[in-house]
Design a protein that fits this description.
Layout lengths: L3 E5 L6 H12 L3 E3 H11 L2 H12 L5 H12 L9 E3 L5 H12 L5 E8 L2 H15 L6 H15 L2 H7 L3 E5 L4 H19 L1
Parallel strand pairs: 1-3, 1-4, 2-3, 4-5
Bound molecules: adenosine-5'-diphosphate.
Adenosine-5'-diphosphate binds next to helix 2 and helix 3.
Length: 195
């Protein structure tokens, strides 16, 4: 049996990189709502048309649209035995929706990795990424807005997960390997405890 793990942290925290490594080692798919949304934008779907300007502004795509998209992704065969959720939930409403979606198949989150990174580090990394990848939402204004939205809407989820005993806070202000080692240890311990 696989496990369901949530990964969250500020934009530019190195969440994508770490989530990919962990998903590979746990042999579960990494489901990134940001990547899924960018796929819709690239394909010009109805959702993509709605999401594009919202993403470019640094705001969040409405909960019900993202949740519907996620529900579709979870119905795919590779998601049947556990998923690493990357970038979802991002709001209290999404956290409740995820609990409900997982409960439909008798599943629940076993661990929430919270990659904590200081603002200065984030801005520095995102500006560098903008130069490398040219992502449309990596302009200085959008970076600031995404950080603001993150602090306001997403970071409060840490308290919710902490109360449930699910939160594994990892200090992300360190080299990739050191962060990855802490994450593996934390998730392995949580998965063991959940068995
Ligand atoms: P980052 O972690 O760098 O902010 P993501 O790739 O996770 O980047 O997300 C990029 C954008 O996609 C977000 O700024 C937001 O507009 C949209 N998005 C991604 N996931 C969600 C979500 N769960 N709910 C609402 N909007 C989302």
């Amino acid at each position: 049996m696989g496990v369901d793990v949530v990964f969250f942290g500020p934009p530019g925290s190195g969440k994508g990189t770490q989530a990919q490594r962990l998903a590979e080692s746990l042999r579960i798919p990494q489901v990134s709502t940001g990547d899924l949304l960018r796929g819709h934008v690239a394909q010009g779907t109805e959702l993509g048309k709605v999401a594009k300007p919202i993403m470019e502004s640094g705001a969040l795509v409405p909960d019900e649209l993202v949740t519907r998209m996620l529900r579709g992704r979870l119905a795919e065969p590779d998601a049947a035995c556990g998923v690493l959720f990357d970038g979802y939930p991002r709001t209290v409403a999404q956290a409740a929706a995820l609990d409900a979606l997982l409960a439909e198949s008798g599943r629940r989150i076993v661990s929430v990795v919270f990659l904590d990174v200081a603002d200065e580090v984030i801005v520095d990394r995102l500006v560098k990424r903008a130069a490398l990848e040219g992502r449309a939402d990596d302009t200085p204004e959008t970076i600031r807005e995404r950080l603001r939205v993150y602090r306001e809407k997403t970071e409060p989820l840490a308290a919710r997960f902490r109360e449930k005993g699910l939160l594994a806070r990892v200090d992300g202000n360190r080299p990739v390997e050191a962060v990855a080692a802490d994450i593996s240890r934390a998730v392995a311990a949580a998965a063991e405890a959940a068995r």
